[in-house]
Amino acid sequence: MKLSNSLLSLSLLLTLNSFSIFTVSANSFHEDKLQQTTDLVKANNKFVTLLGTQVDVGQKAPDFKVVNGSFVPVTLAKFSGKNVLISVVPSLDTGVCSLQTKRFNEEVANLPQNIVMLTISNDLPFAQKRFCKAENIDKLHVFSDSVWRDFGANYGLLIKDMGLLTRAIFIIDSSGKIAYKEIVANISKHPDYELALSTMKALSPIETLSNEEIQEKAAEK
Q1: From the candidates 97, 111, 132, 164, which is the catalytic residue?
Q2: Please, what's the largest Cα pairwise distance for the chain?
Q3: Which parts of 68-195 are beta strand (E)?
Q4: What is the C-alpha separation between 202 and 191, in angstroms, rounded?
Q5: Nearest to 37, CA basis, from 159, 186, 171
Q6: Residue 93 buriedness (CB in 10 A; 0-12 / 13-18 / 19+)
Q7: Which domains are present in the chain?
Q8: CB burial class (10 A; 0-12, 13-18, 19+) of residue 12?
Q9: Cα–Cα–Cα angle for 154, 157, 162, nearest 5°?
């Protein structure tokens, strides 16, 4: 019984520490210092203001820091040298966001193995873990930008006065440059899955061998 109580106390302590980190970071985030974009995205047929620096195809992808389900920091640099697709959603527990995440989770099996696929939202890590477990999301890396808002600020995706990320897709190639960008014009709509996936496949072609090449490789073994 004493051991169980000790473990429970430790678990509560870690949880409180995690919330403390989140609270301090959220309080130190100053929206008024970020660039504003007012004509890219609509919600309920009205434009919303996006905060942060807009990025363009062809430029070096800004690094960012997010957290995983255990509040462990993860940066873009972790995936250096790989082709990375980033699916951005406002909140995993909403209809379109849920479908978007499930779609990309299913599509991983149809893509080359040398790619990485991420989903980023401002949901708390606890909520993300619950969603992924309930919906069997097991092929994507799911990260939270709720602590530092670093990703949203560096890619111009934070919706002013809502604290959410707008819906978007980015593809970063193996050289670290932005190869594809879609900021969905209406937050309630789906992104262009086919165009994003075809772009990803073009960057990471699956090697196809002729019968002779297959025989030669088999002979080499």
Answers
A1: 97
A2: 68
A3: 73-75, 83-88, 115-121, 141-144, 158-159, 168-172, 178-183
A4: 18
A5: 159
A6: middle
A7: 33-204 (3.40.30.10)
A8: exposed
A9: 125
- Confirm if 75 and 106 have CB atoms less than 8 A apart: no
Q: Give dist(CA 195, CA 193) in Å, integer.
A: 6
Question: Which tokens hold the place of 99?
Answer: 């479908």
**How distant, in Å, are the alpha carbons of 15, 128, 205 from that of 150?**
22, 18, 31
N-terminal to C-terminal alpha carbon distance within the chain:
58
- Please tell me the pTM assigned to this model: 0.82
Count the neighbouring beta carbons within 10 Å of the beta carbon of residue 56. 7
Q: Print pLDDT tens along the chain (221 aa).
A: 444 444 333 343 333 344 444 444 444 457 778 999 999 999 989 999 999 999 999 999 999 999 999 999 999 999 999 999 999 999 999 999 999 999 999 999 888 888 999 999 999 999 999 999 999 999 999 999 999 999 999 999 999 999 999 999 999 999 999 999 999 999 999 999 999 999 999 998 755 444 564 455 455 54
Clarify whether 132 is annotated catalytic. Answer: no
Rounded CA separation 59/96 (Å): 29
